[in-house]
Amino acid sequence: MDAFLINVLNGLSWGMLLFLISMGLTTVFGVMGVLNFAHGSLFMLGAYICLQLMRWSGSFWIGLLLGPPVVAALSVFIERFLLRPLYDRDASFQLLLTFGVMLFLDDGVRILWGPAYHVVNPPEMLAGIVHIFSQSYPVYRIFLVILGPLVGIALWAFFTFTRWGKILRAAAMDRQMAEIIGVRVPILFTAVFAFGAWLAALGGALAAPHQSVGPAMGEHVIIESFIVVVIGGMGSFPGAFIGAIILGLLNSFGTTLMPNIHNALPYILLTVILLTRPKGLFGGET
Amino acid sequence: MKKSIVICCVFLFGLLMAGSGTASASEKPVKIGFVYIMSGPFATYGQFAKQGAELAIDEVNKAGGINGRKVEALFEDSTGKPDVGIRVIRKLVYENEVDIVMGIDSSGVASAVAPVMNELKTPLIITHAATPDVTGAKCNRYTFRISLNVNQNMAMAAAVASELKAKTWTTAGPDYSFGYQSWEYFQKYLSKKKPDAQFLPVSEVAFSPSATTDFSSFISKIMNSKADGVLISLWGGNLIDFVRQAGDMGFFDGKREVLLTLGAATEVLYALKEKMPEGLWVGTRYWFQANDTPINKAFVDAYFKRYAVYPSYNAHGAYTAVKAYMAATVKANSVEKEKVIDALEGLSLDLPVGKITIRAEDHQAVTDGVWGKTASDPNMPIRVLKPIKFFSGKDITPPVDETECKMKK
Amino acid sequence: MKNLSALSVISVSLLLLFLLVAPVFLSTYWIITLTEILIMSLFAMSFNLLFGYTGLLSFGQAGFFGAGGYFAVLMLLHGPESLWAALAAAIVGSCILSIVIGWLCVRLDEIYFAILTLGFGMMLFTIAHNWRSVTGGSDGLGNFILPTVSFIHWRISLSHPKHFYFLVLAVTTLGAGLLWRVVRSPFGLLLRAARENSNRIDFVGANVRSVRLLAFVIAGVLAGIAGALFALFNRIASPEMLHWSFSGKAVLMTILGGSGVLIGPGVGAAIFFVLEHLITMFTTNWMIILGAILVVLVLIFPKGVLGSALNILSRKK
Q1: Complex ipTM value
Q2: Which CATH architecture has domain A2-276?
C-alpha cells in the first residue's frame, strides 16, 4: 500500500511541475496558434535565474518571486522582435524560429553558468521529511503536489471571472472578431506569450530544488509538455491538468511495472490520441 | 536549378580553400588529443580530467618536453555518444594530426571507438571508461587502458559485499553497457565468494537512462523490493541526483547495505558535501589519501595548489596517461606511433596511485585499488574514506585467459 | 515548368566533376567531412521532398534514417557480409515502416502531422534504445565487419576513406537523380498541387492521401539508405540516429540551403558542416551561433541561402 502511495506522490509531484509548464504552452498555442519549441528553454532559464538570485540573496523565495518575471521580460523581447514578424507566414516558420531560439538559449545557459550541474537546496520551511506509513517522503514534493492544483484553480478563476481572462478567451476563439471589437491583438499576444513564459519559468524555479539544474533540463521537458498539450487538447486547461497527471503517473508506475517500455509510454499515448481524437481529451473548447 | 549548381560549385571551392591550407611549422609540437564528456550530467568529469591533463603537460613541458619538443593538448567533447566520439577522434587524427589519443569517459563510446583505432593506426590510452571489452573481447594493438576496469572494481566490490550481512542484491545503474556489465561482473564475483547470495532479476532492478534527473520512481522501486543490498553503479551527475533524492526518501536508513561503485569521485563528493551519508561503502579508481608516497603527495599538492580542490580519479587518469606516454617515448626514444605502442606494452611505472604495469597481452594496466567507508573529517570540505580497504592489483585483475582477449603476441 | 537547358546540364556536370575529382586534392579529413556532407544531403533532400514539395513538415524522418542504419547493420551481423544485402535490408525495412507509419500520418494536417511523425519517430527511438538484446540498447550496434565491394574481379575495401567516399557519392547522386525525376514527373506536379490546395486536387481525380503516402514512402526509403550509409560510415548504428533532434538536423539544413530548390538541402548540409568547422576553430559554443543564424535566416531569408541567392540572381536579369 505504501509503495502504491509513494508512486502516486512521485507521479503527482512531477505531474504538477509538468502541468505548470504545459499550461504556459497550451495558453500560447490556444490564443496565438504558436507552438513554442523554446518553451523548455524558458523553463530551464527560470531554474537558472532562480539559482543565481539565490546565490546573491541567499533566499529561495526571492529567486522564486523575481526569477520568473525576468524570464517573462526576456520573452517579451523574443515575441516582439522575433516572433511577431512571422505571424502572417506559415506555421512551420514560427516553429522553426522557436527551434532556433531554443538552440540559442540552451547553449547560452551553458556559456553563462558552465556545463556542470548545480544543486539547489529547498528553503528551510520546506526542507524536511514527512513520514507516510513506514516511508519517508520529502516535504518539498508534497508542497508541489498541493501547489499545482492551487495554481490551476487560480488561473481557471482568472480566465473565467476576470475581464482580462475573458478577453483572452475571446481572442483565442476568434482573433479577427476580437480585433474588430477593439481588442489590441498585438499587445494581447505579447502579454500572453510573456504569461506563458512566466509559467514555464515558475515551473523551472520550483523544479530547481527537486532536481539538478543543468543545461539539458529544457530538452527533456519540452517533449513531455508537447505530449501533455496534445493529449489534453491544445488550448485547454483542464486538458493540461489531466494530461500532466497522466504522464506523471505513467512515468512513476511505468518504471516499476513496465521497465522495458516505460519511456515509450508517453509516445504511445500521444500516437493513440492523435489517431483517435486529434483534438485531445478536452480539445475543441477553450 | 542551374544557377544553384553554379553557386554550389563556387561554394565548394570555398570549402576546398578552407580545407587545403595546412600550417607547416619548423618545430612541430607533440600533440595529444583528449576526448572527454564536456557537457551534460557528466561535464564535471571532463572538466576535472582536463585539469589533470593540463597539470601533467605543464610538468612535462617544464622538464623539457617529449624528445625535446613541446607538448600541446587538444580537447574534444564526445558528449557521451558513440558516433560523436568516432567523429571527434577522426578529426583529431586526420585534421589535427595528434600523436596519441587519450581519455574516454563513457564505456559505450569506448566500445565503439576501440575498433576504429585499428583503422586510424593511432594509439589510444583509455583513462576512465571501464567496460572490460576494450581490453577483453575487443582488444586490439592500438587500445590501452591505464585505469581500473569493471573487472577489477567489481572484484573489489564483491570482496566488500561478501563480508556484509546482505543476502539479496539489486542494482541501480545507468542503462548502458557500464551499468549492465557492472551488475553482471558483480554477480559473477560475489557468487564465487558467497554462493548463497541472491540477485534480483533484470525486471526488478533499476536501470535508468543517463538523462534522468528525477530518480524517485527508481528509488521507490528498490526500496519496495525484497533486496537488502544495493549495488549502485550510477556515476557523475546521476549519482549526485540519486543520493540527494534517495536521502530525502529514507533510502539510507540502514535497512539495506549500499555500495556505490564510484562514490568516491571527488566530483560527486564536492557537489554533495554533507548530503553524502556517512558509513557507505564506496569505490573509486583512485583516492587521493590512499597512500603517502612522495609521488602521490607531490601530485595532490600540485593539483590542490593550482585548482583549490583535491584531485578526482578522472583527473588522476588523465595525468597518469600523460606520464605513461612520456615514459613510453623515453623508452622508445621516439614519438612514432608504432614504437610508442611497443614501448607501452609491459611498461611499469610509479604513479600517484602506486606502481602499475601495463600488460602486454591485453594492454590493461594492473593497478592497486581501494574501497572505503564514507566518513566526515572536520578538516576536510568533503567526505573522506575511513576505514580504507586496500587491494593489490594482482589479486583483483583476472589473468589474460579469463578476459577473452585474443590479441596474438 | 522548367526545361532542361544547356546551362543546367553544364552546371550539373561541373558539380559532379568537382565531386569526382575532389579526393585528389582534398586532405583525408576533408574527404571524410565531404562524405558526411553527402550522406546528410541525401537525408535532408529526402526530408525536403515532404517539406518543400508536398508541404508536410515531418519531425520523424530520423526514425527511417536510423531504422535503415540498424537494418543494414543487423544484416551484416547476422547475414552475408555483403554491402548489397545490407542496403537491401535498409531499403526493405524502411519501406515497410514508412508505408505503415505514413498510412497513419497522412490523414492529419500541418501541426498534427508534425507532432504525430515526431511521436512515431520517438517510438522507433525507444525501440532502438530499449531492446538491448537485438539493438544493443543505448550503446548501439557496432562490431560488424565492413563489407568489401566486389566489382567484377576487383575487391574494394570500404575502410579507405576515399573508397567509401565514392560509394557515398554514387548513392547520393542516384538518390538525387531519382528525386529529380520524381519532382519533374506528373506525380511531382500533383505533389505541389497537394501542397497548395489539398481540397482541389480531389477534383482532378487524385487522392490527397495516396499522393502524400507515396511521397512519404519515397522519402522514408531514401532516408533509410542514407542511414545505412551513415551507420557504415561511423562503424556503428546508435539510437541517437532516430531521435527527433536528429530529424531537426535535416530540417535545419533544408532551411539553411533553401527548400524550394532540389539540391538546396545539400547546400544547407555543406554550409552546416563548414560553419561548424570554422566556428569551432575559435570557440566551442557553436550551437548558440547556429541558433542565432537560424533565427536570422527564418526572419530575413525564408527561402534559405540558396533560394535567396537564386532570387537575387533572377531579379538581376
Answers
A1: 0.87
A2: Orthogonal Bundle (1.10)
